[in-house]
Design goal:
Elements (H helix, E strand, L loop, with lengths): L2 H4 L4 H4 L2 H5 L16 H29 L6 H28 L4 H5 L14 H10 L15 H11 L4 H10 L5 E2 L2 E2 H22 L5 H22 L1 H9 L7 H12 L7 H32 L11 H10 L4 H5 L15 H6 L11
Antiparallel strand pairs: 1-2
Helix pairs in contact: 4-5, 4-7, 4-9, 5-14, 7-8, 9-13, 10-11, 11-12, 14-15
EC number: 1.13.11.11
Protein name: Tryptophan 2,3-dioxygenase
Enzyme class: oxidoreductase
Length: about 375
C-alpha cells in the first residue's frame, strides 16, 4: 500500500461539506427579514442540479458506448444498467416535488419577486440532458433565452453532437433482422397481420350489439389500422407515417425495434428489449416530471407570469407532450400482433441472433 493510499481522509473534507453547506444564500436576506421557506427552495433546486450532474455522468457514458461498433454483450449490459440508474434518479426528482409543494403559494410570495428574472429555464444542465437525449430531433429547441453567452455557446456545441435518439437509431438500423438467407420475415409478418385484421373484421361484422353507425365506425377505424400496417412496410408509405409525426426513426430502425418487441422472449433479445423499455421509462418519467412541474407552477402562481418571464403554467403544460423524445417506441404498440400469431423463425435465424450487429446481413 503506497503512502498516498494510507493518507487519512476526513468525511467532511472528502464531501467538501464546508463549501456545500455554506452555498445557500437566500436573496430575501439581502432585502430585510429572511423568508423562511426560501432555504427549502434553494436546497431543493441545488439537489436537482446535483442529480442532473449524475444523470449527465451516466448519459455521457452511454453515448460513448454507442459509438463503438459492433456493440457487444458487455457494453449492452453496462448501457442497460446505467439507464436503470438514470430511471432511479428520475423517480427521486419526481418525489422532490412533494417537498417543494410544502411551500404554500403565500409563503412563495414572500421571496418570489427577489428571484426575477432567474428561473428553471436557465438550468444549463437540464437543457444539456434534453439535448443529449436527442430532443433536437423532435422539437425546435431554443438554445438562447435568458442564458449567459458562454452557456449559449456550450449548448449549441452540445446540440451539434449526436444525441441518444440518433445513436439508438443508428444501432437499430444495423440489425440484420429484416431478411435472412432467402427468408423474408416481413412477408410472413404481413400475412399474419392480414389474417389478424380479417378476423377482427369478421368479429365486428357479426357483433349484434353494434348499431349500423357503430359498426361502420369500427370498420372505418379497422381500415385506418390496416393502412398504417401497409405504410409500415412500404418506404413511400412510411414517409406518410413520419409526416403524421408517428415516427422520427428511419424505417429500418422501426422494423428492427418492432422485431425486438415481437420476439423479446428470445434469450438474446432480452437486453435489447430492456434497453428499449428503459428509453420509454425515461421518456415517461421526464414527461411526468414536466407535468407535475406545470401543475406546481399553477398551484404556486395561478395565472401569473413566471419568474423567467414565461406564461407560467400554460407554457409549461404546452411543452409536456412536445418534449417527448422516444415517442416512436410507444407508437410501436400499434403494430404488435398476438404471440399466438407470430410467424415461427427459421432454426438458423434463431441460432444466429447475436448482439454483434455490424450491418452485414447474410445473403
Amino acid at each position: 500500500m503506497n503512502e498516498r493510499s494510507m493518507k487519512e481522509i476526513y468525511y467532511a473534507d472528502y464531501l467538501q461539506l464546508d463549501r456545500l453547506l455554506n452555498s445557500q444564500l437566500p436573496e430575501s436576506r439581502r432585502h430585510g427579514p429572511e423568508a423562511h421557506d426560501e432555504m427549502l427552495f434553494i436546497i431543493t433546486h441545488q439537489a436537482y442540479e446535483i442529480w442532473f450532474k449524475q444523470i449527465l455522468h451516466e448519459l455521457k457514458s452511454v453515448l460513448a458506448a454507442f459509438t463503438v461498433t459492433p456493440l457487444d454483450e458487455h457494453s449492452m449490459g453496462v448501457i442497460v444498467a446505467r439507464l436503470e440508474r438514470i430511471i432511479a434518479i428520475q423517480k427521486v426528482l419526481n418525489q422532490q416535488i412533494d417537498v417543494l409543494e410544502t411551500i404554500t403559494p403565500l409563503d412563495f410570495l414572500d421571496f418570489r419577486d427577489y428571484l426575477i428574472p432567474a428561473s428553471g429555464f436557465q438550468s444549463v444542465q437540464f437543457r444539456e440532458i434534453e439535448l443529449r437525449l436527442g430532443l433536437g430531433v423532435h422539437y425546435q429547441y431554443p438554445v438562447t433565452g435568458r442564458l449567459r453567452a458562454e452557456d449559449v455557446a456550450y449548448l449549441r456545441e452540445v446540440a451539434g453532437e449526436p444525441g441518444l435518439f440518433q445513436q439508438v437509431d443508428a444501432w437499430l438500423a444495423r440489425m440484420p433482422f429484416l431478411r435472412f438467407e432467402g427468408y423474408d420475415f416481413w412477408e410472413s409478418y404481413h400475412e399474419a397481420v392480414a389474417a389478424m385484421l380479417a378476423k377482427d373484421r369478421r368479429s365486428i361484422e357479426k357483433n349484434s350489439l353494434f348499431s349500423d353507425a357503430e359498426r361502420n365506425a369500427q370498420l372505418a377505424e379497422l381500415d385506418n389500422t390496416r393502412r398504417k400496417f401497409e405504410c409500415l412496410l412500404d418506404p413511400a408509405g412510411f414517409e406518410q407515417l413520419q409526416a403524421q409525426d408517428l415516427f422520427h426513426l428511419r424505417q429500418t430502425s422501426v422494423l428492427s425495434a418492432l422485431f425486438i418487441q415481437l420476439y423479446r422472449d428470445e434469450p438474446i433479445l432480452h437486453l435489447p428489449f430492456r434497453l428499449l423499455s428503459h428509453l420509454m421509462d425515461i421518456d415517461e418519467l421526464f414527461t411526468a416530471w414536466r407535468g407535475r412541474h406545470a401543475l406546481m407552477a399553477q398551484r404556486m402562481l395561478g395565472s401569473k407570469i413566471g419568474t423567467g418571464g414565461s406564461s407560467g403554467h400554460e407554457y409549461l403544460q404546452q411543452t409536456v407532450d412536445k418534449k417527448r423524445i422516444f415517442k416512436d417506441l410507444f407508437n410501436l404498440s400499434t403494430f404488435l400482433i398476438p404471440r399466438s400469431s407470430l410467424p415461427p423463425l427459421p432454426r438458423r435465424l434463431k441460432q444466429s441472433l447475436d448482439f454483434h450487429f455490424t450491418g452485414e446481413q447474410s445473403s
